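Now for one record:
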Amino acid sequence: DYYLARSRMALTVDTRTATEYGVVRTFGQGDFQFQNFGNSNIGSTTNFTGAPLNSALLSTAGGGYVAVEYLFIQFAGFTFGKSSSAYSTPWNGFPGNITSSLLGGNNTDTGVNNIQYTAQFGNGVSASIGLDDPSVWNRTAVYNLSIPSAIGANGTGSNAYAGTHSPDIVGNIRVDQAWGLFQLSAAAHEVSGSYNTLGAGGAAT
């Protein structure tokens, strides 16, 4: 194949309903994609070098790719669902760093499962606190340096990350006015090694 093609659609639904207790907002965004080349570039998917196109990179007829970027409900300052973390900032992702690897886990177009509360103090001053699910975004490699050659010459080794035990606690203080935006964020995140065992084989005294 000598050309690549991709079709995409982002479907966004944003509703706001006035109730006796304030506005209830629901928001959702789903992405749909059909393509003939997967995530590779033209150099690796064409047969310019004589290699055939990998059929695993094709979207099947009637198939394709579907993703949920945001899906949440807001009421009385609370947010429940998949939304931007209280830790994240407008410059956390596009068009600034263009990465999803930062704490907070969003590129302004991809949220993280969370529960958060935002208090508005007036004059553009607000504060938020929340609990984020770190299972998808805020994970990293943990190496046991007590093992000889735990990290190889290329900087990688056997990952001893023990997984998540609790949600991240995140928050921010924000000032958003005509002159610009100032935000101070903080987060508490647990990083646990699988070699971190207490009292293994010991007897209580």
